[in-house]
Structures are given as C-alpha cells and as structure tokens.
C-alpha cells in the first residue's frame, strides 16, 4: 500500500500484489499508459452516470492521509484518507468549473476514501469505499500482459469472475457486485515487469463501496 506516492513513479493506493516465489502474474504494480504518461494501479474510478461514462481515477487524486494501520497476525491492513481533489492547486474559477462539470453529485471536489485489505494463504480480499459518496463505480485492473517469458496473459469473463491465465498460472478476480461487460485494453501499457494490459469493470448499480477478491486457482 502506498499512502505517499512519488507522482512521476507511483500512485496512491495498492502498490503491489504478488502471490509468492516462482509466480509471474502480479497485479497492482504501477502501470503506465505509454501515450499519456498516466500511471494506474488496481483501484476505483468514479463515474457520474451509468454505462461507459468518463472515469475519474481515484489513484490520480492527491490525498491527505488520516489513518494507516495493520494487524500482521490477522493479515489486515487499513487505510483512510481525504482527497484534496483533482482540482487541487487550481484557481477558484477553474475549480468551480471543474467541480460543476466533472462529477455530477460531487458538490465539493473532495471525498473520504477507505481501503481495507485482508490477506489469506491463496487470496487477497480488498474493500474500497467512498463513505457518504454513493455513486457509479469502476474497478480498474492493470495486469502483466507479456513479461518476456514466451507467453502472454489471456483475460476472460465467467459470471462474476474475471479470469487471468498466464502460462500455467491462473488467478481469478471475484466481485460481489453486478457489472457491465468488461473492457480489456491489451496494448499501450507497460510496467517495470513488462508490457501490461488494463481491464475496466463498470459496476451496474450505484454504491459507496466495492469488495473484490484476487484468488489463486493454479
């Protein structure tokens, strides 16, 4: 978990999810969109309307850390922060225009963010929430596409599961919420582990929190 990222190198939120030695399919390694230079990690985006609407990426906002604690015995990590907002540093007029046009229902360009992680032997459970801000959410999932090992990662959708297969490795992303057909972007991204892809998952109903699990299947 990265609560104070270097903006040209990292992003706020989940920093890395790995599943042990001799495994290559990792998640949340900061992933750069080559054309724009924007950096992504596994995490939420905010939408002002249903469907394939523009997304405000939570990890791209600036945050003031409120709480960061862990319980190693239980495999838990909890973070609470307050977004300064994507208009942080703008003049008042620019801020007013941005807030009124970018995110319907978000009357102030700031919000509370919480993330709770539970680690188990073969899975990671993540709960991300924007308390008091119930709206349409998107889950963005960068993944290793080609690490130079002679195989690439395939992505498929099975019920409430997104299946990632990389050679003999298989990891499933399981969501508790209903979502629209996924969008898989399999070019134009890279991370320090190799070429990368990104999956966009638009949740169907407005919500204040999103719970998902990354599970090692094989």
Task: Give a structural overview.
It is built from one helix and 15 strands. The protein is mainly beta. It starts with 30 loop residues before the first strand and ends with a strand.
Provide a short characterization of the protein structure.
The chain is mainly β. The chain has 1 helix and 15 strands; from the N terminus they run ββββββαβββββββββ. The protein has one helix at residues 92-102, and strands spanning 31-33, 39-40, 43-47, 56-57, 63-71, 76-83, 112-119, 123-129, 136-146, 153-158, 161-166, 169-175, 183-191, 194-202, 209-216.
Keywords summarizing the entry:
mainly beta; 218 residues; eight-stranded antiparallel β-sheet
Topology record:
Blueprint lengths: L30 E3 L5 E2 L2 E5 L8 E2 L5 E9 L4 E8 L8 H11 L9 E8 L3 E7 L6 E11 L6 E6 L2 E6 L2 E7 L7 E9 L2 E9 L6 E8 L2
Antiparallel strand pairs: 1-2, 1-13, 3-4, 3-9, 5-6, 6-7, 7-8, 8-15, 9-14, 10-11, 11-12, 12-15, 13-14
Hey, roughly how much beta strand do the residues contain?
over 45%
How many helices? The count is 1
Sheet/helix structural class: mainly beta
Low-confidence stretches: 93-101
Rounded to an integer in angstroms, the radius of gyration calculated over CA atoms is 17 Å
Question: How do the helices and strands follow one another from N- to C-terminus?
Answer: EEEEEEHEEEEEEEEE
How far apart lie the N and C ends? 25 Å
Major sheet: 8 strands, antiparallel
The shape, in one word, is globular
């Amino acid at each position: 978990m990265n609560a104070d990222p270097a903006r040209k190198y990292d992003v706020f939120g989940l920093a890395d999810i790995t599943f042990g030695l001799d495994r290559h399919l990792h998640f949340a390694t900061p992933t750069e969109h080559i054309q724009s230079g924007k950096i992504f990690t596994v995490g939420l985006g905010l939408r002002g309307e249903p469907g394939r609407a523009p997304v405000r990426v939570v990890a791209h906002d600036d945050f003031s850390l409120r709480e960061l604690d862990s319980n190693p015995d239980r495999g838990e990590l909890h973070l609470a922060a307050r977004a300064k907002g994507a208009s942080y540093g703008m003049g008042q007029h620019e801020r007013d225009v941005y807030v009124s046009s970018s995110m319907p229902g978000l009357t102030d360009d700031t919000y509370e963010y919480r993330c709770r992680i539970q680690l188990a032997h073969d899975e990671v459970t993540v709960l991300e929430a924007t308390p008091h801000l119930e709206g349409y959410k998107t889950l963005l999932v960068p993944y290793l596409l080609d690490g130079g090992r002679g195989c690439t990662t395939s992505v498929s959708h099975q019920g409430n599961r997104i299946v990632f297969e990389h050679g003999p490795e298989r990891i499933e992303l399981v969501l508790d919420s209903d979502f629209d057909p996924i969008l898989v972007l399999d070019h134009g991204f890279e991370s320090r582990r190799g070429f990368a892809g990104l999956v966009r998952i638009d949740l169907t109903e407005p919500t204040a929190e999103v719970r998902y699990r990354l599970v090692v299947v094989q």
